Amino acid sequence: MLTANNQKKPILKKNKNSKDIRHQLGMYKLIFDSIYNGTMVTDSQGFITHFNKPYGKFLGMDPDEQIGRHCTEVIENTRMHIVAKTGRPEINESHRIKGQDMVVQRIPIKKNGKIVAVFGQVMFKDIRDVRKLAEKLELLENKVALYEKELISLRSTKYTLDSIIGVSDAINNLKTDALQAAATNLPVLITGESGTGKEMFAQAIHHVSPRKIHPLIRINCSAIPRDLLESELFGYEKGAFTGAKSEGKPGKFELAKGGTVFLDEIGDLPLEMQPKLLRVLEEKEFERVGGTSLIKADFRLIAASNQNLEMMLEQRNFRKDLYYRLNVIPLHIPPLREREEDIIPMARHMLNQITQDASIAEIVLDRQAEKAMIKYDWPGNA
After folding, report:
1. Level-2 CATH architecture, domain 14-124
2. How far apart are the C-alpha atoms of 63 and 44, rounded to whole Å?
């Protein structure tokens, strides 16, 4: 048997639903009337079903009085009824009303594949506003270009390909190879004795690469203590270990986002760290020490070594899989004693730099000095 309370429940639920619907419709109308430059909607025959207040104010019309009228009776040069027939949207089209050129869009609204309405909106009340916007965009683009140049200047490497002095075939071929390597994102392995200019080539490759506006992060694998190397490369989360910063710290790989990582003295990378570096190169992602979330690796790797890595492979002091991952583009710089034709040009270049920095008279090498320099063995290539 139904009680009075039981009969009231469906009525209360129905009233609540009706209230929610009224509130929702009120919000839709408020949103529609807040579209700034004006908008209207027609049915599939071109008769106006919605006309917002800003559009009425702009045209000097009462919005409510336009409902039910055909769009051609209300808006001069309208194409709303045409879009309803063609079904083709018209985006950012010019529309002349009251002698004023506006920019509008007309979008067909479909239901079950059939056009049921057309939505029209004024994007710009005056086409001159578009020109003003274009001028602002051009100004912004110019500013961005200027800031990009300044950023490149601030982040520019000390050395470029022009900084590498030499006339020998070996140096010219290396410059060509470096330029080709710079156009890719593949790892580069630079080998050669100490003092041959491995870091100069690494910086030069970064400088002519698409990554040049991003940082070049240099890490000397022999200079960082073993127990700190992992946190230096990968960073760490707060509380990862005793003495860790309370807010954590990003690692070199993270700081190099978009740029280049230069691992100098890669032969000194501890064996226990080598598989971790390999994983970064293979998976293109890593975790901070003490962290659980993966960080996307977005950097180009250049490694350098003055050691014989192939001999280290035989001695099992360097992993083969890592070596082959690094040695995608090999660049070997021969020692100065094997490039006699580069000795005098380099000496003259250095003397010229010294005289300019010290503001002294030009220093010229005589033939006897040149002969002595060519005969010298140049230990350490310096």
Report:
1. 2-Layer Sandwich (3.30)
2. 20
DSSP 59-100: HT--HHHHTTSBHHHHSTT--HHHHHHH---EEEEEEEETTE
How many residues belong to the chain? 382
Max CA pair span of the chain: 125
Q: Map out the domains of the chain as residue ranges.
A: 14-124, 128-155, 157-334, 340-381
Domains 14-124 and 157-334 alike in fold: no
Pairwise CA distance, residues 80 & 23, whole Å: 30
CATH code of the domain made up of 157-334 = 3.40.50.300
SS3 content of the chain, % helix, strand, coil (to 5): 45, 20, 35
> Which pLDDT belongs to residue 260?
94
**Is the Cβ–Cβ distance between 33 and 54 less than 8 Å?**
yes
* Phi, psi of 360, rounded to the nearest 5 degrees: -120, 170
Q: Quote the CA–CA distance of 165 and 187 in Å, as a whole number.
A: 24
Give pLDDT tens digits for 330-352. 999 999 999 999 999 998 998 98
Rounded Cα–Cα distance for residues 172 and 128 (Å): 56
Count Cβ atoms within 10 A of the Cβ of residue 88 and give its class: 0-12 exposed, 13-18 middle, 19 or more buried: exposed
Where do we find the tokens 């702009």? 58
pLDDT tens, 209-227?
999 888 899 999 999 988 8
